[in-house]
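Notes from the pairing session

We agreed to fold both candidates in a single pass and log them together. This is the raw record for the first candidate, unedited. Please don't reformat it; downstream parsing expects exactly this layout.

Candidate A
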Amino acid sequence: MIGIIGGTGISSVLRRGKEEVINTKYGKVKVLIDREDSVVLLFRHGLNHSIPPHRINYRANIYALKMLGVERILSINSVGSLKEHIKPGTFFIPQDFMEFTKNRISTYYDGEDGKVVHIDLSEPYCPEVMNILRDVLDRRGYPYNEGVYICTEGPRFETKSEIRFYRTLGDVVGMTGYPEVALAKELGLCYASLCTVTNYAAGISKDKLTVDEVFEVIRKVEEKLIGIVEDFIEHALSREKNCQCAKVLEYCTVK
């Protein structure tokens, strides 16, 4: 099974399959399941974009995908650019991340089950899923950059001083990439992200950043996103898994 986690705006256009509610020990999760094509769609902000980034039940979402038999996840995220050459309207593939969140539960292993687990995140994103994504973007001729994703708490946008700091560390800034990536790794799931660059971050552009600006760019790339997702599903289902993502717990548990 392939899992697609949709972000801002895309939930209004990327809909397929039957709606189901999955009961996990971390909470209920609403998904769309296309069993014929082995695809699960999950919209992290809700179908009507009613859940802010800091209130998303990330643990329940990733756990629900695991329960449904998902092995590979493509996450769709919206980001602001920290570098002038990473232009709005283009795509970005994170190779690594840094997080500055504050109140998010970011692990399944909090000691309640008697296990102490230290997950290796030296390679946080699945190399095979990233390669599939690169192939899709290259074949379609869509420009993209790669680099470091900075995750902030939200829901507010960042200050100019914060952005001056973040741009020394990374390439794009967003609010939803973490803890998804870490939780997927803990469950042995293959995970990669496709980011839509919607704007320049505060202080890089002379104009004030608005939510309307973000949604306007997403609307412009909707058709591209749909095509990328459809191509990704086709290639991900046809390519054999040879990565080590599913074996991560074999060498990360203190026994």
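Candidate B (folded immediately after A)
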Amino acid sequence: MTALPAPVRAPLSAPEVLARCRESVRPALEEAVGRLHPWVAEMAAYSFGWCEVGGAPAAAPGGKGVRQALAVLGAEAAGADGRAGIPAAVAVELVHAFSLLHDDIMDEDATRRRRPAVWKAYGTGPAVLAGDALFALAVETLAAVPQGPGAVRLLSAALADLVRGQADDLLFTSRPCGGPERVTPQEYRAMAEGKTGALLGCAAALGAVLGGAPARTVDALDRAGRHLGVAFQLVDDVLGIWGDPAVTGKPVGGDLREGKKTFPVLVALGDPAAARELPALLDSPGRRAEAAALIEAAGGRTAALAEARTHTAAARALLAGAPLAEGAGGELLRLLDFLVDREL
């Protein structure tokens, strides 16, 4: 009797890829968080949407798990089982959670994913402590793998870039809107690559390292992730001004309230007519809707999305030039397009 060929699995959509990777990582992520001090573990679980304040189980909205997916797909792209990338996925997710806890405090954002931010729910000091614990746990997680020294160095380099990007993002708010001291698009790109791209690139690269990939593949995934990070931040900028809070989980006009020099704002400030009116609108709490309309009329929204797609194309080119396993390579490409087109 002739054996039938094995069924071919239909390609997964990007949301299905994210769900598959989240499900494979969550047990290890929960085990890692469970090693923390119980109070700190509760704050971490709250930040992930697993519990309410006090520890009662919850199914609150969590993140998409983008960094988790990149780590698992990085291992699979190297030809390994996706489980090889799980320690990398846990580590980068812990670092991402740590950065969000501190980010919300620095930006004074009271909500995160339609719930009180950790610092509002537990207090500023406890939230800082929880973030520090998550960072330490991430390093511990990577140090335990056979490739530990190299993996920790890769994570440390990404963290240094993340801090530089975050510092620039904070400093940009105090820069003038015009003149030679104003923030340039080039400075913005460097900030976005550090603040967002470094950890996305690190996630994919760490997964590839744990999957046994050659240096060429690791480098291509790191650089592609950095381009994706810039595109992701550009889309975040658009959502921060025009996004629906019911969908994004972020306060409407939050970036305008904080005076952030996001890419759409920089584009508008480069238009002489808009630049004359926009600074006054940004300084007036009751006129932020007018500011958003002026930024859009000056081309800020369109330019930001076009720039995002330019970086997506650069990421696609890097992935196309790397020797990636076919299935994972295709899922990485679908993920790129999905993340740039999200909620727009």
